[in-house]
Amino acid sequence: MSLAVAGACATFTAAHAQDATSSNSTDSMTSAPSVIVTGIRASMQSTMNMKRNADGIVDGIVADDIGKFPDTNLAESLQRISGVSIDRSNGEGQKVTVRGLGPDFNLVLLNGRQMPTTDLSDLSGRSFDFSNLASEAISQLQVYKTGRADSPTGGIGATINVMTARPLDNPGMRASIGGKALKDTSNDHLPGMLKGDSVTPEVSGIYSNTSADGRFGVAVSASHQKRDSGFNRAGLANAYQGPYRGNQVKAGETLPQPGEPGSQNITNRPGPNDLYIIPQNFGYSVNAIERERTNGQLVLQFRPVKELTTTLDMTYSEQKIHTKRNELSVWFAQTPTSTSSWPSGHVVAPLTYQEVYNAPQDISVIGGDYGTKTKNKSIGFNTVWKASADLRLEFDAHHSTAESGADSPFGTENNLSNASFSRGTTKIDFTKELPVLSMPAADLVNQPIQAAGSWFHNSWQKATVNQAQAKGSLKLLEASDLNFGVSYTDSTNRSTYSNVQNNTWGGASKASDYPASIFQANPLGSYFKELNGHNAPELFGSLYTFDFATLRALTAKATGNAAGYLPNFASADTDRELKEKSSSGYLSFGTDWDTAIPFRSTVGVRVERTKVTSVAQVLPGTAVVWGSQNELPITFAGSSYSTQDASYTNVLPSLSLDFDVRPDMKIRAGAGATIGRPRYDQLQGGLSLGTIVNYFTGGTASVGNPALKPVKSKNLDLSWEWYYSPQSLMSVALFHKKMDNYAGQSLISQPLYNLHTPVGGNYYNAAIGTGGCAPADTNCIRNYILGNFDGQPGVVKTGVKADGNLNGNITGLPTDPLVNFVTTTYSNQKSATVKGAELNVQHMFGRSGFGVQANYTWVSSPTKYDNANTNDQFAILGLSNSANLVGIYEDDKWSVRVAYNWRDKFLAATVDASNRAAPIYTDAYGQTDVSIGYNFNDRLSFQVEAINLTNSTQRQFGRTEAATLNVTQAGPRYMVGARYKF
User: Fold this and answer.
1) CATH code 2.40.170 for 3-235+286-327+369-375+475-486+572-751+823-981
2) H or E segment at 307?
3) Which of 364, 419, 537, 550 is disulfide-compatible with 329, CB 3.0–4.6 A?
4) Which residues contact 880 (CB under 8 A, 6 or more apart)?
5) Where is this region: Disordered (predicted)?
6) Burial, 936: exposed, middle or buried (Cβ in 10 Å; 0-12, 13-18, 19+)?
7) Residue 699 — φ and ψ, nearest 5°?
8) Which pLDDT value is given to residue 25?
9) Residue 3 scores a pLDDT above 50
10) Structural contact between residues 587 and 604, judged by C-beta atoms closer than 8 angstroms
11) Whole-angstrom Cα distance, residue 128 to residue 118?
12) Tell me: the pLDDT tens digits for 794-830?
């Protein structure tokens, strides 16, 4: 049975929830008086019936009425399902993890069709962003957890089918219009300059109608939502420096050894074999988000005869996100004058860390203002023909696109970095929930803020899917059926990226170029009131905001470099395209067996052939120029394109058994193989260099491998399901996945393009020797080279900066050392297993109106990240236990739902923000949501909703739980709405 057929059946069940749903119902259930259930209970019963009548292990959510899905965000609905966890962005569900497999390994379909997706925050991912879709036109979500021959490939964790309303499934005229007023309290926790509207609107409507003879149907839905919100974050933008061993000796980069100068300032120094990390770039940021989301769908259906149904549908969504941010940050240079205290343990991060400087350092005051827009369009045609009582045929085709790009003259991401050169002793205390930064000597009055560096990014991405599917079902004899089908999918993903950057970190202008009023001081601690440490007396007191457009124009005028303070829309530094063409066919045979324990068996196989073509722009590096204290930007010149092809074939068998142990009890077992395709960055050919060479760590580069095979998983599933009343069930599911061909990430240190760095060259060595500079004192080294070798090859002094240090460029010469680039590449080299269990309970307490839903998912894998290992490692991302507890009450007038969702800590990444091999963990998180509905009459209803009612905060950490990487505070959001049915 196809996904579309299963959806139609479940929708039919939803519309007739009062009827007996199958011959498996108990005698007591079928002989009881007919009771019509509506609202939440109808949704629960329909969802339970969908699970009960499906082949394989299926979960889902069914809307209790047309245009009324239980959550405003589909990802937040999915998190209520056992085995499903979500990733949040700005306090809202965005992407899903199923059974421990992350977003890239879950396939999302719209009405059984593979959908393209674009995400500028992750140009290389395959994961679907649910924030693009409103829930008003969604009739149900189906989560297929076991592999099936008729399911498109790509989902190892699950295949998630999003079903929209179809008029012929709901005969007659049905229409509703709704409106909500949204109050997001996170908007209240922003500086006045960044705040959006206090209350924002959401409006939606749906109209569905069929002709009197049932031959024609039309459905139209539309919604528009605006949300002004924000989040405030404290953390290490470049993660921690290191890791280092306690006995490691590398001047300027590690803690002083016992007996060396500065060692007396270390409390509980890490032991010789202990691993430790040191903070690098720490800051506080406030972020304002203005989001507008518009969705629309048109469905036309024609049924000339009852055996033939044709459907033409068009779907459109647009999401605009405008971001304003301000940040205050500092850079730790790892001086030998540091003072630090450490916990006990073999892998440690400092409890407190302080540095003292010989010359004033910069306090960075950063701001950004940028906008993005994502459009999704899909047009599809479907026809279903019941050729006879035994033969059913279906054809489906669609053309769908997703496109994301800039919605601002300043590009898709940008920052103006400004600085006051007045920082002396700087300390950070990690012992509190909010890391506390103190700078007692800072003086932004006598050393006003001036322009420093800047960067203007512009990204664009477009994905296209053209797909045609033909399938059929043939009934054989009395108890068997044969399902078959073929499909062809042509998908393209293209992304471009450009960067305009000014590396004038020592100062690009004078403070006198700006009016005194342009930088506004705000009480920093007030933006982190939910975090312990926000009122610490030593916390630096002010966070500065400014109007981005005004400051950009003033800086461009002061520097005479207008073009350098705008993004490059005309051409791209990086241009990549990946094409995948897949042809597939499947065959499955199902039989009902009338044995002592009746059961159904389904055996199937899917064969798929995929061709991959990678086209990538290559930008050769020509020089390395030391233009600021710790960073050496690369000069690029010229470009070329490389094209690579590869192909692979997969044979994917599947077997499912469904035992009717009792009329109200089932046992299911399944085995099969599924695949998940690699990420686009893993497949994409073409060598890409990072734009900056770091003074301490060198350069970075990456190159993909188009010949990568998909991850192949061999799956075993077992479940027990007890349907002990019309709206109640208990189930336990066990699963085991053995996955091969994971793309292992390899980090290779190598020179590229014959690029040389002045660090370690003749001028540098003279500064260390004759000049007496310490290797960590980059200002001393630069001053010596610019002061003594100006005019010699590669050295150009351009003046004196506001802090007294010399300004200029030092270019790597052929006699200087070659730059070592840590190059990331991929190959099929890893295997992993995941096993787990799901416990699910749904219970209604008779006719009292009270009910409860509860589930718990346990997942485990022997492939774990070793925090004490400094090498590149492979581990499964997103693996975590999760739980849901939902309390329900409903009567003729009131419906109340209180939901608590919890997810345990999980590994979010194995590479940090500086592209170093290091773990990033997301801490355990729990959130409480409440919704209350009141039916004024049969047509008019009112709703009140509260999301994140307890104002939970989020945190990420590194190699130890004490190694805070970032903490984020957002806030609850409240909605009050009304809905009218015609």
Assistant:
1) yes
2) none
3) 364
4) 85, 97, 100, 859, 903, 904, 905, 906
5) 242-272
6) exposed
7) -105, 170
8) 34
9) no
10) yes
11) 8
12) 999 998 876 788 989 999 999 999 999 988 888 888 8
Please tell me the predicted confidence (pLDDT) of residue 775.
87
- Only one residue has tokens 């930007």, namely 633
Nearest-5° Cα angle at 769, 813 to 337: 110
Total Cβ atoms within 10 A of residue 33: 4
Distance of CA 333 to the CA centre of its chain: 32
CA R_g for the chain: 30
Question: What is the spatial distance between Cα 541 and Cα 525, in angstroms, rounded to a whole number?
Answer: 7
Closest CA to 382 of 278, 436, 448, 309: 309
Tell me the whole-structure pTM to 2 decimals. Answer: 0.84
- Residue 96 and residue 119: Cα distance in Å, rounded? 14
Residues facing residue 688 across a β-bridge: 702
**DSSP one-letter code for 590:** E
Q: Which residue has the tokens 């188009």?
A: 706
Q: Based on the number of CB atoms within 10 Å of its own CB, is 636 exposed (0-12), middle (13-18) or buried (19 or more)?
A: middle
State the average pLDDT over residues 839-864. Answer: 92
* Cis? peptide before 272, omega within 30° of 0: no
Q: What are phi and psi of 234, to 5 degrees?
A: -125, 135
Phi and psi at residue 27, in whole multiples of 5°?
-60, -40
CA 398 to chain centre: 26
Pick the closest to residue 324 from 292, 370, 291 (CA basis).
370
In whole angstroms, give the CA distance from residue 321 to residue 292.
7
Going by pLDDT thresholds of 50, 70 and 90, the confidence category of residue 471 is: very high
Mean pLDDT, range 287-316, rounded to an integer: 95
pLDDT value, residue 199: 96
Burial of 594 (0-12, 13-18, 19+ CB in 10 A): exposed
- Chain center to CA of 842: 30
What SS3 state is found at 508?
coil
Q: If residue 363 lies in a helix (H) or strand (E), which one and from where to where?
A: strand 361-385
Q: Both tokens of residue 733?
A: 């599911």
- What is the rounded CA–CA span in Å between residue 142 and residue 166? 16
Mean pLDDT of the chain: 88
Q: How confident is the model at residue 19 (pLDDT cuts 50, 70, 90)?
A: very low
Q: Kindly report the length of the chain.
A: 982
Q: How far apart are CA 184 and CA 975, in angstroms?
A: 8
Backbone angles phi, psi at 417, to 5 degrees: -105, 125
Which pLDDT value is given to residue 21?
34
- Four-point Cα dihedral 229, 429, 248, 868, nearest 10: -60
Is a pLDDT exceeding 80 seen at residue 527? yes
749 CB neighbour count, 10 Å cutoff: 10
Instruction: Give strand pairing partners of 606.
Output: 586, 652
Report the C-alpha gap between 168 and 165 in whole angstroms: 9
Could you count the other beta carbons within 10 Å of the beta carbon of residue 765?
12
> What is the rounded CA–CA span in Å between residue 604 and residue 485?
11
431-441 pLDDT, tens per residue?
Answer: 999 999 999 98
What secondary structure letter does DSSP report for 812? Answer: -
- Per cent of the chain over pLDDT 90 is 62
Task: Name which of 284, 494, 536, 520 is nearest 405 in CA terms.
Answer: 494
Q: How far is CA 654 from CA 146, 714, 830, 966, in A?
A: 9, 10, 24, 44
The 3-state DSSP class for residue 52 equals helix
Distances (CA, A) of 479 to 55, 391, 601, 680, 889: 15, 14, 11, 45, 42
pLDDT in tens, 113-140: 998 988 887 767 777 777 777 777 788 8
The DSSP bridge partners found for residue 658 are 600, 668
Residue 20 pLDDT? 34
Tokens of 123: 């140009």
The larger pLDDT score, comparing residue 969 to residue 444, is at 969
Q: What is the pLDDT of residue 930?
A: 93
Task: Using alpha carbons, select from 593, 583, 393 the residue that is nearest to residue 484.
Answer: 393
Q: How far apart are alpha carbons 652 and 657 in whole angstroms?
A: 17
